[in-house]
């Protein structure tokens, strides 16, 4: 139980830290130019948030969203579903790979 009494505080911190790190990694993936979230972010926030290489300038986007709660909510509505999809894909991929490893070979 995360954040509850069943996990000692030092474990909660490690678990939450790992979860946050994982979310940041997935976030970094889904905002790459070839992902749907990137296209939507550029459409709503404009090309001025892009770096020369086409990636999102996190500092420029941060300046916009942290000064405007509505824009932060818009960004969340774009990124959260894509993060959830990517996490599910990774979980399913891991699950399938583990199933394949566990299957006995028929000889």
UniProtKB/TrEMBL annotation:
One Pfam family matching this protein: CoaE
Listed InterPro entries: Depp_CoAkinase, P-loop_NTPase
Keyword Nucleotide-binding carried by entry: yes
Single GO biological process annotation from the record: coenzyme A biosynthetic process
Keyword Cell cycle (UniProt): no
Superkingdom per UniProt: Eukaryota
Keywords annotated in UniProt: ATP-binding, Nucleotide-binding
Alphabetized GO MF terms: ATP binding; dephospho-CoA kinase activity
SUPFAM superfamilies: P-loop containing nucleoside triphosphate hydrolases
NCBIfam families in UniProt: dephospho-CoA kinase
Protein name: Uncharacterized protein
Species in which this protein is naturally found: Limosa lapponica baueri
